[in-house]
Amino acid sequence: MSNLFSLNELATNESGEIAYIHKDSIMRHRLWDLGFTKGAKVRILYTNPSGSPRAYLIRESVIALRNEDASSIKIELEQNREGVRNEDGVNS
Amino acid sequence: MGLTVNSTGTALLKEDLSLTYLEEDSSKTAVVALAGNPNTGKSTVFNNLTGLKQHTGNWPGKTVAISKGQYTFNDENYVIVDLPGTYSLFADSPEEEIARDFICFSRPDVTVVVVDATCLERNLHLVLQILEITTKVVVCVNLIDEAKQKNIIIDTKKLAEFLQVEVVSTNARSGEGLKKLQEAISNVALRKEKPDTCIIRYEESLETHITKAIEILENTKIEFLKKRWLALRILDRDQSLTKKLENYFPTDQPNQLEIFSEQLFNQPLVGDFRESIVLSLYKQAEIIANTVTSKNSQANKLRFNFDRIALSKFWGIPLMLLCLGIVFWLTLVGANYPSQLLSQLFSQLEEYLFLGFNYLPVPQLVKELFILGIYRTLAWVVAVMLPPMAIFFPLFTLLEDWGLLPRIAFNLDHLFQKSGAHGKQSLTMCMGFGCNAAGVIAARIIDSPRERLLAILTNNFVPCNGRFPTLITMILLFFSGSGILASFSASIIMLLLIVGAVFVTLIVSKYLSKTVLKGIASSFTLELPPYRKPQIGKILIRSLLDRTLFVLSRAIIVAAPAGALIWFLANFGVNGQSYLEIFATFLSPLGKLMGLDGVILAAFLLGLPANEIVLPIIFMAYTSHGSLIEFESLTATKSILLNNGWTSLTAFCLMVFSLNHFPCGTTLLTIKKETGSWYWTFLSFLIPTIIGIASCIFVSQVARILSFL
Ligand SMILES: Nc1nc2c(ncn2[C@@H]2O[C@H](COP(=O)(O)OP(=O)(O)OP(=O)(O)O)[C@@H](O)[C@H]2O)c(=O)[nH]1
Ligand SMILES: [Mg+2]
Fold first, then answer.
1. pTM score, two decimals?
2. N or C: which end of chain B has fewer CB within 10 A?
3. Which residues in chain B are closer than 8 Å to A27, comparing Cβ atoms?
């Protein structure tokens, strides 16, 4: 579990797999119902000029989330991207 | 189809359909419920089956209340109920609770789950949940035309095998497959509910708990619900449900279930119960979706293209403004000709009316009351107000049907967030364009009560269709200049007014968020549906017709009596002064301070029932014998205004006040109904009025000071 990012940290068109949603998120239930479940693939599609909300492709539909809410979703980046992100030193 | 006659005040004020009413006729006819994810086409199916005009629109959350219709198939009667769209039935939000309760407690004979063929996995998540409640289900795989375009093919036979229910594929827009759907419904209606079935097996640890809970439930009187599902809900601590079921538990051993669930929760379940359920549901949904869907993934890429512009950093907001600007421009250009035609028609008719009245043995006064009071006000409202409304509305509906509204919400969300408001407030504002009462009702899509109140209290800052023609008239008379470019500059001014209205909304929302409605923006999710080619012909005709009927009926209900009243006020009085003059003189000091005059203020007050009549009242009051002049052309009317001391400042202040003043009567009543409180209703009256008065005073005083310099 080395390479976890928050969903909102993905760069445009990057995609990954959901590892978990933070326990404290009040909208866990809503996110699950929309398909943001463990193991589901997400891709980021669009970003509002101000940086939030951002729109994600999840299970064939496009869902917009504010960054505060997306940050509770932890993502494992797709393999080929990991190297790139590590150099940026973004991950914790 | 977008905003129709139903999305306007009068229709909305009628009582919501109550569930009890439904139970009455359910003995004679089969009750069919339409459930499904938001924006999958439930209302379109509903309309197609019933021939009704429930509004549809290309954004999730269009339908916010239950509505009911009827149809006959093979001589059998069916009552069909359009439920709000939901992503699940866990009853975490009001829509979910409405849908869940209807399926559980109203026990429809058939539940049709409308699913989106292009997004099967998530839709199946809901289907599986419904199947746990009832097996009298028809799955309607809708939007197959869109699926085809994306090279997605759904094997409905296989899907039916998996789910053990009837599956029909449809294109609700064209009506393809709806006969089959009706057949399937009639088959299932006759069928008996299958006894406790196990649609999904959960993790072993959960299953042991479920088995234990089912055992306990055997002792209760709840026959009509599946024990397995009930057990799951209780284990999930669904208090909204257990409360409703309290009566059904035997009174002598009331606490057994509670004790059991308490025990369970004291020794924490492994992991999160809900998560475990959802994961199993989705796993099953994935398996089914993968087996029944075959797709060519390449075609998928095309779909997101336009959003690259509409949601891009640079083009997003300009593009929205451009769309709106084009709509304004088309309205301005298009309204001109029919407006003139109508007024010619009305003045011709008036001559005949006069002639006709000459043959009737009625006193002169009655004749004048009818023709100069009632008839002319009516003619005014119809000639001046109708054309812009009847053009703006269908055009806006086209944008709605295309899918622009959720994009607007996306692009503006950060502003609303900063104001402590909900991202979907922009959707309610868009509805407010049509009618503020409709906008207030649309606020139901906002779950958080605080943010919903914000949306309700500020909806009135968006100029509704009743005020829209007033603004246009003012712009055309005083600001747009003349010549070819007039319609362009008028559209731009209109656009600026709307931008201003949005800013006022944001500022007021922010202020309310800091005071009476303290709090910060809560979380929200917004689905962006694919763009859809609007059904242009159908919308234009339908929407135009609806609007026209709406304006005409309002004209008759409101404008006619108002015309009579104002004619009376303008023609009778004491000491040689008419009541209207007395009233106007009384309001005059405030009016003057606001850059207006007493007559204008009086008109706004008398226009409380409907904003459409504000301008007619003003003109009626200005003309010497207190009756309305015939509407001939804009330029002719301008001279009347100028003769009464108007300047462009007056017109500007009138626009400001038109944008910011108390909501119309219908809207106020709707606010009372939606909030259930006179306090909020009163605030919604007070806030815009104060802002309007203050800004008018500010503007006019600044202008006066500047003119001295
Ligand atoms: N192309 C296509 N469009 C469809 C079909 N069915 C519905 N639509 C369109 O999809 C959009 C949504 O339809 P609605 O009927 O409003 O959806 P709904 O399920 O009632 O949505 P909510 O009330 O928000 O839950 C509208 O623009 C419809 O015209 C279909 O079979 N094919
Ligand atoms: Mg609907």
1. 0.88
2. C
3. 523, 525
